[in-house]
Amino acid sequence: MSTKEVEEMKEFMTILTEVKVSLAEQSVKLDNLLDMNNKLNRTYDVAVSALSKAEENEKDIAEMKKQMAEKASKKDVGQIVKQRESTFKNIPSWAALAVSVAVFVLTYLVN
After folding, report:
1. How far is residue 76's CA from residue 70's CA, in Å, rounded to a whole number?
2. Ramachandran region, residue 107 (left: φ > 0; alpha: ψ -120 to 50; beta: rest)
3. Which residues, at least 6 apart from 72, have a Cβ–Cβ distance to it below 8 Å?
């Protein structure tokens, strides 16, 4: 082999080594892209799931608002509570009146 052939062989081997290194770098980049693709797919699935859940929540909120509209308001409940409290406050008065009337009637009937 001549020195020219040796030089050409060295140059060829250098170029071949550079191509090999470049292919290895491209392989790493491709692996990173494939990993990124999997992450993007998972992210998309999570986003779709979140959107679906948000839509379900909106439906539930609308249903709850409808149910709340059908139920008694705080004002109505407050009035009912006040009426009951008033009734319980007046029970002793009514009982005293009933006892007084009973005593009066018994006193009248006995004489």
Report:
1. 12
2. alpha
3. 80
Query: 18: which residues sit within 8 A by CB, 6+ positions away?
Result: none
Other CB atoms within 10 Å distance of the CB of residue 29: 10
Element (H, E) at 73: none
**Tens digit of pLDDT for each residue in 44-99?**
999 999 999 999 999 999 998 888 777 767 777 788 888 888 887 888 888 888 88
Written as six digits, the tokens of 93 are 């008065």
Per-residue tokens: 58: 């909106």
Q: Which structure tokens are listed for 73? A: 């308001």
Boundaries of every domain in the chain: 1-71, 72-111
